[in-house]
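CORE FACILITY INTAKE
Project code: CF-77B
Contact: R.S. (postdoc)
Sample description: multi-component assembly, two entities in total
Requested service: structural model of the whole complex
Turnaround: standard
Below are the sequence entries exactly as provided by the requester. Do not edit them.
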Amino acid sequence: MLKIESMSKTFAKGSINEKRALQNVSLSLREGEFVTVIGGNGAGKSTLFNGIAGVFLIDEGRIFIDSDDVTFDPEYKRSRLIGRVFQDPLKGTAFDMTIEENLAIALAKGEALSLRPGLRKKDSRLLQERLELLDMGLENRMKQKVGLLSGGQRQALTLLMAAIVKPKLLLLDEHTAALDPGIAKKVMSLTQKIVSEENLCTLMITHNMKASLEYGTRTIMMHEGRIIMDLQGEERKNMTIDKLVEQFEKRSGSAMDNDRMLLG
Amino acid sequence: MTLTAFQGSLELGIIYAILALGVFLSFRSLNMPDLTVDSGFTLGAAVSIITSVSGHPFLGLLLAFIAGCGAGCVTALLHTKLKIQPLLAGILTMLGLYSINLKVMGGKANIPLLNKPTVYSFIEGLIPGNYARLIFDSIILLVILFLFYLFLKTRLGFVLRATGDNDQMVRSQGVNTDFIILIGMALSNGLVSLSGALIAQEQSFVDVSMGIGMVVIGLASVIIGEAIFGVKTLFRRLLAVVLGSILYRLIIAVALELGMPPTDLKLVSAVIVAIALSTPVVKSSYPTLKRKYQSRGLSKKRVS
């Protein structure tokens, strides 16, 4: 589904601020695999995501989605294969448009731009059914502007929009980190429901070690632009947070100094 | 105000409403203040007069619209492909267009349209009475308003509005935002030029500097309209822009009647827009200022 071959990215090359954000990262995801990504600040998690999504072009390496080479495709073209939810709840929706208008844009993803009505009657019913899945009462507020929603509601809506046309790959960049614990849990269980129902190939960044083991089927750990651990199967089942910390310190050669990764 | 003066303001307000809808498209829908407007307006006027001189006033309107679309495309490409800030991109196009406008006008700074048919002379022949112009302008505006509203309700229109809100979201929904900005700026400036074309034929005259300050007039109409008539639904917003434009013209007419020298017009327009734009800030900081002032008063009392 997703195949990355030795991807590298350096920011501000040749300047005093040069940062080798990704170094020779290779990663392969099978269909329906749900991979959690952990690592400290500056480990390269978000750079990995942005590289896959095409926010910038990578310096070296190749990216394949579903055997299509997308290495040089612009962001908008890749987006037709990828669903994305960002950490910032404001980033995923248009605040001055209504809930149903936002969803209608997502529902037509990949469709050529045309002068057909943006929202058709038959779409409206489908969108309402989808909103009911969120169990947030949004199906009764479809004509309200998204700007009136809470962060959690917006994030749930973004999640729905990212998956309403089944993507080849779902990228979740700490999508619950900015939410209250209660609503974060709800968005997380919603995520799990959508991913398993649609059997989506998913990459999820998290700062939370517990969540990284609790959700998904595979966990990778990043440090200084490299993947330093790839946990799956039995090994992952028997993993505990304590052992994970121990492994991290052994493999990265540095102490775990990030409270946010341990707690929460 | 006399009835004739009132009717004149109404006619102008209706024609300038087309300009205001164009400004609404760039400033509100795309969230990009676009200074191309000032020269784009003149471009439309020049094209329409030149075409009318050779006897084709209706063709002049169409060509003016197309020329305006072209001007908008230039600004959009400067911004999206060459990464020049929207404001600066607009200024560059505006400056360049000034020379182009002079070229269109054959090097002359102004051209009167003497004894040649205009769309208005044609309509006045068709509809007897004093209201021919008003009826014609109203019909054009209503058609544009209707089409504009329908456009914003299409899939393309949805994506265009979303681009102004959050371009990141639009890209992650698989749409090329550069293309959307190109379409939006083209249509916006097309409307602006059409407005200039109508004004020029109405006055039977084009002057190379007639577009100065048009962007501010457009903004004033949008802001006054939104403040007074509301922004609740999309249709109401568009209607507000139109009514804002008419209201602005009436305000100006009353001010002139009260003895304001016409040379002060631009200053007054600028002040109106500055006040309107700053109202939200003043409103939101007023309670804090009030508290600060009151607490100062209290502490002074305590000292004494």
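Facility notes:
- Chain B touches chain A through 24 residues (CB under 8 Å).
- The first helix of chain B runs from residue 3 to 29.
Invoice: internal transfer
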